[in-house]
Amino acid sequence: MTVKKVDISIQNISKIEGHADLDVKVRDGRVQSVNLKFTDNKRFFTQAIRGQSVETLPQAVSRICGTCSIAHTMCCIEAIERALNVPVSEQARALKKLTMYGMMIRDHALHIYLFALPDVFEKDSVLDFTGEETQYLKDSFDVKRAGNKLTTIVAGRAVHAPYPVPGGFSVIPDIKELRALIPELKLAREKVMKILGVYARCDRKYERETKFVALGGEEFNFLGDYILTSSGDEIKEENYFEHLDKVVIPYSQAVGYEFGDDTYMLGALARLNLNKTNLHAQTRRDCAKYLKLFPSNNIFLNNLAQGIEIVHAIDHSIEIISNLKLKPEEPPKLEYKDCQGIGVIEAPRGILFYRIALNKDGAVKDGTIITPTQQNQINMELDIKKIVQAEIERGTSKEVIQYELEKLVRSYDPCISCAVHFLRVNWI
Fold it and tell me: Residue 53: inside a domain, yes or no?
């Protein structure tokens, strides 16, 4: 029998990066409203960067988020480089890619092993794993460790990395230390290949037609060259903001966005949907049976896409390290002026946008920072609405609906601040 009236309130959705609440209102058997509330995103960082020196800005913005700190640093640096016309050497570009790959390996592993995998096994958390399941928990530490070491060697630390600066790196890594990491990267790759099968065999589907947006380029990397959409658009990075429409969400601390009046999704699923042919050749070969599943509108496959991206990050990192010939290299001197620069990169959860305006003294006049999860918020709400309506019509119990909603949100891997714990659900 269809439930005619119910209010669903989930406080502090568990196993995500940050704090989010969810309220769903059903009347006369129809979903009337879905309010996904980001409760800790209003931190005024666009105001806080004003007056900051361009010399310290990349380190300041890395504190916006612990898990995505590398992404904020690298995006800020790109905006500064474009504002001041800073040249970037091929060596610096290679080190930037390695820095990003290390972050992606570590961050994706956190999600697919520790946050999303319990849902696949129908467990509350990794602490409930038994038998063969516990091996995946052990594997997660090996994969995360490899990513952490890669970023630490190249960028100085896995979180709040001090070495990347506009135009290059303040410290050049030891090539011997990098090459000594290759066996550990290969071991991590073996572990990840096993988890891909687990996600591919899971038949969970969260499907809804939507637009996908991601960076594209001659190769699959997270620094990109231009914007791609599933509608066939190819947009210059500096024009990205012109296509975004800000949407005030009164019940959330985060502003939402639409793309040309359409909702859209960012992240690993979008990247594979739009750019899978540019994955590393070895990744395409070994993941061929999984890549056949893309493109897809199934949001749950975002987790499988993250695993494939780890394999790509490892394969390309090994290739870069094997061919890299490092030499001492001083970052270029910055020449300040009144200017503005745009940075657009792929954070783990999708496109991160920076606009930095500087004055002739090298201080920030103004800035705009748009995070991926802000851009995914409206899309998540529409997905939630569809699932609730379908489950209500099937007569599904409130407890099962609640669990399905949490699993859907976790499939997006939202990054709001830091991991939280589930408190309670109120049904009225």
Answer: no
Final residue belonging to a domain, choices 313, 331, 349: 331
Q: Tens digit of pLDDT for each residue in 71-112?
A: 999 999 999 999 999 999 999 999 999 999 999 999 999 999
Q: What is d(CA 299, CA 274) in angstroms, rounded to the nearest whole number?
A: 15
93 and 192 in a single domain? The answer is: yes
Q: Is residue 183 part of a domain?
A: yes
Number of domains in the chain: 2
Task: Round to the nearest angstrom and report the end-to-end CA distance of the chain.
Answer: 18
Tell me the residue range of the domain where 171 lies. Answer: 87-204+300-331
pLDDT tens digit sequence for 31-48: 878 777 765 545 567 777
Provide φ and ψ at 30, rounded to 5°.
-125, 140
CA 343, CA 347: separation in Å to the nearest integer?
12
Cis peptide leading into residue 173 (ω within 30°): no
Contact 150, 105 (CB under 8 A): yes
